[in-house]
Write a structure and sequence with these properties.
Blueprint: H1 3-8, H2 13-22, H3 28-46, H4 48-61, H5 76-96, H6 98-125, E1 138-147, E2 150-154, H7 160-168, E3 172-181, E4 184-186, E5 195-197, E6 200-203, H8 207-210, E7 216-218, E8 230-234, H9 235-242, E9 251-254, E10 258-266, E11 279-282, H10 284-288, H11 290-293, E12 308-314, H12 320-324, H13 327-335, H14 337-340, E13 342-350, H15 370-397, H16 399-411, H17 416-448, H18 468-491, H19 495-499, H20 503-506, H21 511-546, E14 556-559, H22 571-580, E15 585-591, E16 602-608, E17 613-622, H23 627-631, E18 635-638, E19 650-653, H24 654-659, E20 672-676, E21 679-687, E22 702-705, E23 714-719, H25 726-743, E24 752-753, H26 754-760, H27 763-797, H28 799-807, H29 812-846, H30 857-883, H31 887-891
Parallel strand pairs: 6-11, 8-10, 17-22, 19-21
Antiparallel strand pairs: 1-2, 1-12, 1-13, 3-6, 3-12, 4-5, 7-10, 8-11, 9-10, 14-23, 14-24, 15-23, 16-17, 18-21, 19-22, 20-21
Helix pairs in contact: 3-4, 5-17, 6-15, 6-17, 6-18, 6-27, 15-18, 15-21, 15-27, 16-18, 17-18, 21-27, 21-29, 21-30, 22-25, 27-30, 29-30
């Protein structure tokens, strides 16, 4: 009978497996033997097909209570002894292989520390304003305004909007109208000095109808802000003002002369919020004080101010779309867009989105960028994967050394499940050690990255509430991620195969060797993607900071005098004249805004001919006549405007001239531009385009003109020390400060170099660059650490081969080359994988900039050479050390 016929006359394999699974081990051999004999008879009597059916039916008949395998009882004492044995064995393995353990622990610790810091950061940012019980029904009304062809956004609304919405809209439970207050001085009776406070808001009782989760220590939310000149304080603010004294009933002076009576105390809010107010001034005060009310335009439908806010709480059955459908009727009824050439529309923004939306910033609000947070989470995952891959590589490589241990354990009765528990226990012990080290590294890392992390984030959150569960979850996840495959692989060895030492003979060609190479490729692909990201982000950042912006920024200092907008005297003008006479000041200009700034002011203006009309949303820069000189802005045609206390003549930039239809731009000189129906102003000159904002924005149409000095709060000083030593710059600044203190003795002299102001535009990009730099360093370090461990193991396994090669005449360089060539190919493969991914991600990131650098071939060449150099350095040093060993030491036992 041939082999095929023998196979055909075998009982079904799956039936035998089922029998083995459920049958008691003591009964299994006898039952299997009897069934095999019966199967042979059935084949002869009925044929193979019917014999198989009978075999399956008899196995089913044997599925009875007395034959079913019972789970053996393990006493708690036995369980404890086995657990103790697992831990002791694991600890011995840790002590026995100190280098191997150190590489694993340190690599895992770095990955876990990075994951811990990033997890805490992401968790912190997503916790803002998530504590409100009705937070899913709270929305902010935001404004969208169209000037000519440009849409602009604003987080505020015209002051009458929330009150009208409350009266005329349906589907709402509550509407809160409130106004944020610019930093202002606050005076406490009995105190000689006033203090500047920032977190002030003018609100009514409706504020606490929308935000109901405030805890009142004293006062009534319905009455505390119902009357004029009332103020509610937080507990810490009340203590700051009055110490241990009772605060309710006390008087506080705001806005220089208005006395408010404390009518309530709120408990400090322990949660993260973008509405961290400490002083709640009653909204009714605006109705009672016309001077104060004039600053907030309560009756103006045409004035949209970011400090005028409106929040809604929708009813249970309403949707945002239901409310937004009611806005067009309100706009048609009250705003009358045709009259002012501005189109308006309103949208609802969920409270949960407020922390992530840079289009609607509150004063001093810190915004988090969601894509950056998702990118951070991805970086954390990759670093954790790289560290886990190190562990998997080293453990599967060491499987050759532990194969006999597995064989002996199986011969002595260990099941595969017990072996898996043993190896997972070893992994857990190593991960636990790494977790302890990770906390120390994270503590240092959070201090090092303090400027890039949220200001109120610390590692102490781990020990508050259930924060420690995050660390435990990371340890558990890494234990499973890193330990599962090695445990399954080691426990699967056949005892006969292992005890005959067949593992070592096939270790270089098995699928595990291919797995190790694949994991190395994956590691270095991530590392090279990080390198590419570092080079691309660094290149763009260098471009942003060094691109010619159309004006000079070196040796320019700017500052604003304290509370300048409230100054009705001429001391700023006198101060400017005094500063112009200093030897350290080359030129000085007063302006409303800087050439490039994050804030803006615009209006729609018109140029009309007999046959056409051009409307342009133009950005306004108000300054005196020295502005062009201080910043070196070039005049292309015409002349500078003359000194005037009102806007009398205009300068346009090239973009504005082209927007009006003047080609070339010089044709704009002498033309009349209509600011409104009653004012036509001549264009007296055209300046070269300069960047009026960050480089992720295109150059806007800009109009420049002279304005009376009381509207100009920025002092722009071109130092005469341009290009000179730091000591001379300090001397010039000391001169300026001395003169400033004569005019403003009550306020400190706070200045900035304009270069630093420009750099602040790109703080987010600088944080991104720093993050990627560190992630790159960690990724490379962990990858090289794993490579070092793998090469160390490989050289130890091939030490006799190295000895034989040296005896036969191989040089150290040849041996090093032999070991290195294998990894060169892996690095190139990883680069092929990493390059398109990194290029795509970098292109997406660069697309947000209107002006950006090019991604050149040099960056890719530098990346692959860097990765290749680091890999060869790691492999070369270890193999060079092995090649230097005396061959007699490795061959004398043969």
């Amino acid at each position: 009978m041939d082999d095929n016929e023998m196979k055909k006359e075998q009982p079904p394999l799956w039936a035998n497996r089922f029998l083995t699974w459920f049958c008691h081990p003591d009964l299994l051999p006898e039952i299997q033997g009897d069934l095999q004999e019966l199967f042979g008879r059935w084949v002869q009597e009925y044929g193979v097909r019917k014999a198989r059916w009978l075999y399956v039916l008899n196995i089913i008949f044997f599925f009875r209570p007395f034959t079913i395998r019972r789970k053996s009882f393990v006493s708690p004492i036995t369980s404890f002894i086995m657990l103790r044995n697992y831990l002791l064995t694991a600890w011995r393995q840790v002590q026995k292989n100190k280098l191997h353990t150190a590489i694993n622990v340190f690599g895992l610790a770095i990955g876990m520390a990075s994951c811990l810091i990033i997890s805490l950061t992401v968790q912190h940012e997503f916790s803002y304003d998530r504590y409100h019980s009705d937070g899913d029904r709270i929305y902010r009304i935001t404004s969208h305004l169209k000037f000519a062809d440009d849409w602009v956004t604003n987080g505020g609304v015209p002051a009458p909007v929330p009150l009208t919405v409350r009266d005329e809209f349906t589907g709402l439970d509550a509407v809160a109208a409130f106004h944020t207050v610019h930093p202002t001085e606050v005076k406490i009776p009995g105190s000689a000095e006033a203090t500047e406070q920032k977190r002030l808001v003018i609100a009514g009782p409706d504020f606490f109808d929308v935000f109901t989760d405030h805890h009142w220590l004293m006062g009534n939310p319905a009455q505390a802000l119902a009357k004029p000149y009332q103020v509610v304080l937080t507990e810490s603010q009340a203590h700051k003002y009055f110490g241990a004294r009772e605060a309710v009933g006390q008087t506080i002076t705001y806005f220089d002369s208005l006395d408010f009576v404390v009518s309530g105390i709120l408990a400090d809010d322990p949660h993260q919020t973008d509405l961290p107010f400490t002083d709640y001034l009653s909204f009714a005060t605006l109705r009672a004080d016309q001077t104060l009310a004039g600053n907030y335009g309560l009756e103006s439908w045409q004035n949209t101010n970011s400090s005028s806010l409106a929040f809604l709480k929708l009813s249970q059955r309403s949707t945002p779309a239901d409310i937004e459908r009611q806005f067009p009727a309100l706009i048609d009824k009250y705003i009358k867009q045709e009259a002012n050439n501005v189109k308006s529309k309103f949208n609802l923004q969920p409270l949960s989105d407020m922390h992530f939306d840079a289009d609607y910033l509150l004063d001093d609000q810190r915004i988090a960028h969601k894509p950056t947070l998702y990118g951070l989470a991805l970086v954390a995952l990759f670093l954790l994967l790289i560290a886990s891959i190190n562990f998997i590589n080293l453990e599967t490589a060491r499987a050759v050394l532990r194969s006999r241990e597995v064989g002996v354990r199986k011969v002595l009765g260990s099941s595969r499940g017990q072996l898996i528990q043993q190896f997972l226990g070893e992994t857990f012990l190593i991960t636990l050690l790494a977790g302890g080290l990770a906390v120390l590294i994270a503590h240092w890392g959070m201090d090092y990255f303090k400027e890039s992390l949220p200001p109120d984030l610390s590692l102490h959150v781990l020990w508050k509430s259930n924060g420690w569960l995050l660390l435990l979850a990371i340890v558990g996840m890494v234990s499973l991620l890193a330990g599962a495959y090695p445990a399954l692989a080691l426990s699967s060895y056949s005892p006969v195969f292992a005890l005959k030492n067949q593992m070592a003979k096939s270790s270089g060609i098995t699928r595990k060797a291919y797995l190790r190479k694949s994991l190395i490729v994956f590691q270095f692909a991530i590392a090279q993607a990080f390198i590419l990201g570092t080079l691309m982000v660094g290149s763009q950042l260098h471009f942003l900071l060094h691109k010619d912006m159309g004006f000079q920024k070196d040796a320019i200092v700017h500052f604003q005098p304290d509370q300048w907008w409230q100054d009705t005297t001429q001391r700023r003008v006198t101060l400017a004249n005094e500063l112009r006479n200093l030897s350290g000041v080359s030129a000085l200009s007063l302006s409303g805004r800087l050439p490039a700034s994050s804030g803006w002011s615009s209006r729609t203006v018109t140029y009309q001919t007999d046959t056409s009309e051009a409307k342009v949303n133009i950005y306004i820069k108000q300054a005196d006549t020295s502005f062009l000189k201080v910043y070196g802005i070039k005049l292309l045609a015409g002349r500078n405007y003359h000194v005037s206390d009102t806007l009398h003549e205009l300068l346009l930039n090239e973009t504005a001239a082209k927007a009006f239809g003047f080609e070339p731009p010089a044709e704009a000189v002498g033309q009349l531009i209509a600011l409104d129906e009653n004012r036509l102003l001549p264009v007296v000159g055209v300046v070269r385009d300069f960047h009026d904002g960050p480089l992720y924005e295109k150059i806007h149409p800009v109009m420049m003109g002279s304005e009376e000095s009381r509207r100009l709060g920025n002092f722009n000083l071109l130092l005469a020390t341009q290009g000179k030593q730091g000591e001379q710059v300090e001397q010039s600044l000391a001169q300026i400060e001395k003169v400033y203190q004569r005019f403003y003795p009550e306020a400190p002299f706070e200045y900035q170099f304009y270069e630093d102001t420009i750099a602040k535009f790109y703080e987010a990009e600088q944080r991104t660059a720093r993050l990627i730099n560190v992630a790159t360093g960690l990724g490379i370090f962990i990858s090289c650490l794993g490579l070092l461990g793998l090469v160390s193991f490989t050289t130890n396994q091939r030490i006799k081969e190295i000895g034989i090669r040296k005896v036969l005449g191989a040089t150290v360089a040849q041996i090093v080359t032999l070991f290195s060539l294998e990894f060169v190919g892996l690095v190139f493969i990883s680069f092929i994988i990493a390059a398109p991914i990194a290029w795509y991600l970098a292109s997406e990131w660069l697309s947000r900039f209107a002006y950006r650098t090019d991604i050149g071939v040099a960056i890719f060449i530098l990346t692959v050479l860097s990765a290749l150099g680091l890999a060869l350095l790691t492999v070369g040093l270890r193999s060079w050390y092995a090649a230097l060993a005396n061959p007699v030491d490795s061959l004398r036992n043969e």
